[in-house]
Amino acid sequence: MEKFIFFNGRFVKEKNVKISVLNSSLHYGLSVFEGIKAFKTSKGTIIFRLKEHLKRLRSSAKIMGYSIPYSNKQLTKFVKLLLKKNNLDSAYIRPIVFFQGESIGLKKSKTNIALIAFNLKNFFKNTELKLMISSLTRYSKNKLFEFKVSGNYALSFLAKNKAIQKGFDDAIILNEKKQLTECSTENIFIVKNNTVFTPKTNAILSGITRDSIKKICKNLKIPFKEKNIPLKELFNVSEVFVSGTAAGILPVKQVNTKKYSMKKNNITKKIIQEYNTIIQAKNPKYSKWLEFV
Ligand code: PMP
After folding, report:
1. Of the residues 83, 181, 211, 261, which has the fewest C-beta atoms closer than 10 A?
2. Is the dihedral of CA 197, 203, 204, 208 positive or negative?
3. Closest approach atom of ligand 1 to CA 208
């Protein structure tokens, strides 16, 4: 079946989308984007926390000087239509905003917006992850890392591909103080003395799944704290897990050569269980997170 893309106000067949190479976003990594998920449930398809994703898209767009010519209500309608046009009852949805067509200078030009949707089964082939500590650094003063700007992903790309080359699933990137920041496209969590800890959001992406975990923990009465986590603490904890829209919530079974028991990770399991009931639309407590298509 032909895939439809929403491009600057129209639904266009993928092969008919024409983008210029005079595209400063392509040349300099200036585009901003989102990753959103739609899940098939027994009650119909739901889009998970669409409002929060659109809010983050707008904040990324604002920092780069894009002006998105549609309201959230319009974007919501377009996303739903996109799923219908592509016959998707579950999907990964990728809005992307970029400059193109006028010059390749480092000057603002016209805002373009595309919405793409496709099937995404397993983002990681493994359901328990092996992570490697990357030798690259996410500087803790770099505010740009708090936004979904494509240029940030050069670092994620290098870290992840090095990890894969060495037989791992992904990399953990540290800041210059040797504290944990995040993985290539996931936030990271440790469990110590039955408390969940995750790095503060300095120079990391404030994940929407991360925020969901914070609220799940509150409801399950699991203590949850944000703090700076030195690398060495990672080797002294019972559970490690990661979260992201594409990946979901996944336990970590190994970091470098350190192994974690997949039998004793009870807190991770509880959180994953609760998350699964939410995305299956079986947990009315969280119904405001679900946008029915
Ligand atoms: N960190 C980075 C760098 C990411 O790209 C992502 C994916 N958006 C995340 C964390 C997780 O964020 P979310 O839960 O909103 O997908």
Report:
1. 261
2. positive
3. 15
**Nearest C-alpha to atom 6 of ligand 1 is from which residue?**
185
Distance, in Å, from the CA atom of 252 to the CA atom of 239, rounded to the nearest integer, reads: 7
Beta bridge partners of 8: none
248 lines ligand 1 (CB under 6 A): no
Q: What is the pTM of this model?
A: 0.97
Beta bridge partner(s), residue 94: 116
Question: Distance (Å, rounded) from C-alpha 2 to C-alpha 15?
Answer: 9
CA of 33 to the centre of ligand 1 (A): 11
Question: In terms of C-beta density within 10 A (0-12 exposed, 13-18 middle, 19 or more buried), how is residue 115 classed?
Answer: buried
Q: Which of 245, 271, 279, 289 to mutate to test the pocket of ligand 1 (most atoms within 8 A of CB)?
A: 245
Q: Are 84 and 293 in contact (CB under 8 A)?
A: yes
pLDDT in tens, 234-279: 999 999 999 999 999 999 999 999 999 999 889 999 999 999 999 9
209 lines ligand 1 (CB under 6 A): yes
Distances in Å between the alpha carbon of 218 and those of 50, 205, 221, 271? 22, 21, 5, 11
Q: Assess whether the C-beta atom of 212 lies below 6 angstroms from ligand 1.
A: no
Q: What span, in angstroms and rounded, lies between the C-alpha atoms of 158 and 154? A: 6
